[in-house]
Amino acid sequence: MGCYGATHQVSEDRYPPTALGSVQVLYQEPKRSYEVLAFVNHRDTVTLSLSNCIAALRKQAAELGADAVVITQAQPLMFGSLQGVNAAGKAIRWTR
Length: 96
What we know:
The chain is mainly beta.
């Protein structure tokens, strides 16, 4: 299978990319108000590394102009005898 990511953009607004290093990775809902730009997902059946999946979500969020990615799921997967890991989240932008 390999590695792959998916992005489901929900915001009609488009923003320039954000510097990867400035995109926060959050594991709980922030207290600040925000706009959801997209739902992002990454699956890996090669390295089996959740940290690689989360890094891929951060990259997807940066490409959308997000300020942060809220991780909503990070778990190992089994496809018969094939193993993998999956991470999903919301790419968000702070409302000013």
